[in-house]
Amino acid sequence: MTLQTNPFDDDKLREECGVFGIIKSDSAAAMTALGLHALQHRGQEAAGIVSFDGEHFRSHHALGHVGESYSSETVISRLVGSAAIGHVRYSTTGETALRNVHPLFADFDFGGFSIAHNGNLTNAYTLHKQLVKRGCLFRSTTDTEVIIHLMAVNNKGTVIDRFIEALKQVEGAYSLVALVNNMLIGARDPWGIRPLVLGRLGEAWVLASETCALDIIGAAFVRDIEPGEVVILDGKNLQSLKPFNKVPRRFCIFEYIYFARPDSMLEGHSVYETRKQIGVELAKEAPANADIVVPVPDSGLPAAIGYAQQSKLPFDLGIIRNHYVGRTFIQPTDRIRHLGVKLKHNANRRFIEGKRVVLVDDSIVRGTTSTKIVEMVRAAGAREVHMRISSPPTKHSCFYGIDTPQKEKLLAHNYTVEKMTRFIGADSLAYISMDGLYRALGEAKRHAGTPQYCDACFSGDYPITLTDLDTNEIQGQLSFLKIKKVGE
Ligand code: SF4
User: Fold this and answer.
1) Is 471 within a domain?
2) Whether pLDDT at 418 is above 90
């Protein structure tokens, strides 16, 4: 039987990575595996852990879920050492070559160096071409490897100096964890696009993409790593450096809408509370004459609760999600392919029949799933279907670490709301406004000149230069990884 990528794609944007690091723990690898398990939603195709015992680095990289790859006592016990970093990854092609699975590792003149990255570098291809001309040989096709080569070609100063000098040359979004010389390093790009938090567990320091990864190991949240901050944790002390020119903070607003886990706190906001509040604002802006509010599970759930509370309509789980649809699916025949969305979602007919339904979802990407869900709810007997979306229309691609189709494939890039309503077959469709979204985050409105968050996939206002996209011959490609994928 052939295994292939799930053909019943849920048509969502996908977070590409999650990172975790710990130092001064007597079970560093096990803690890292647990942390990665909590971050599984940020990448399901592969996971890697590198540990350090003061002398040797050890690594394990595997395709598949953390639970599948790190449940064995043998794997964890082989990863000896009191420090470890880990990474979960989502690859955009359905295939992930093992050599691309983070953490990456290199042997330098100063010793071993391992690094894991959440984000995407927007000048990686340009730098890659320059580095290859200088004789660098790349072993992976991930953008992150340029950081290693930039450190290799500059042998001035300490390892931290070389790391910082390398970061000064890269553009794009990065939240990094690295292990070197008994030090755990964390770094966030100057705009702070992707999250990175600091925690403490007894004497151990912990770095993680989200606070849910601190919770799972019982670590206390200390603070967010600041945009443009490099922290060096040597097991005793924390050293904080701010080596980059200051730029306005532009945290990814979509982390609140969809990517982060609802039980995480990011940049001082509870993700769950924010999603609920977005639902409240959405109900104020786009009320509907309806009988019942139904979330498209799971991501539409908190916003639907907020929408129902504000509109004083009953809330019910009118769609049930099957959580056991895997990453891969046994080759479907044409006979079952049409069942599509039903593998993942089923209408709870008893609660829907004869009702005017408000369906709440977080976004519409290509519109394929929304179309099927509206159809399914109608087939279950809904009298009317009113779709409400807890983000503004997704009109542009993300180049900062989220897998998005090219903008030409985004429904909202091509269609007006009126046309989209017809396309998905709803009686009405409304999105939250940009100001409504900012209000849900406690802002009076979006600042026109320099907005408080990155919202480029809605506005097209990209805070960080897109050098590769603007200057090279592969214009239109979404990421360095895709460009170099040929032949893998
Ligand atoms: Fe987040 Fe969208 Fe900005 Fe990407 S473009 S970082 S998804 S807000």
Assistant:
1) no
2) yes
Over its C-alpha atoms, the chain yields an Rg (Å, rounded) of 23
CATH number at residue 100: 3.60.20.10
Question: What pLDDT score does 404 carry?
Answer: 84
Give me the domain span that covers residue 388.
272-322+330-450
Verify whether residue 17 is a known catalytic residue.
Answer: yes
Pick from 191, 395, 400 the residue to mutate for probing ligand 1's pocket: most ligand atoms within 8 Å of its CB: 400
Residue 217 · residue 195 · CB < 8 Å: no
Give me ligand 1 centre to Cα 463, in Å.
10
Contact by Cβ (8 Å): 151, 108:
yes
pLDDT band at 125 (very low <50, low <70, confident <90, very high): very high
Q: Which residues line ligand 1 (CB under 6 A)?
A: 193, 252-254, 398, 400, 402, 454-457
CA distances from 313 to 283, 308, 430, 438 (A): 10, 5, 17, 24
What is the count of structural domains for the chain? 2
Residue 351 pLDDT more than 80? yes
Are 101 and 229 in the same domain?
yes
Nearest-atom number in ligand 1 for the CA of 456 is 5
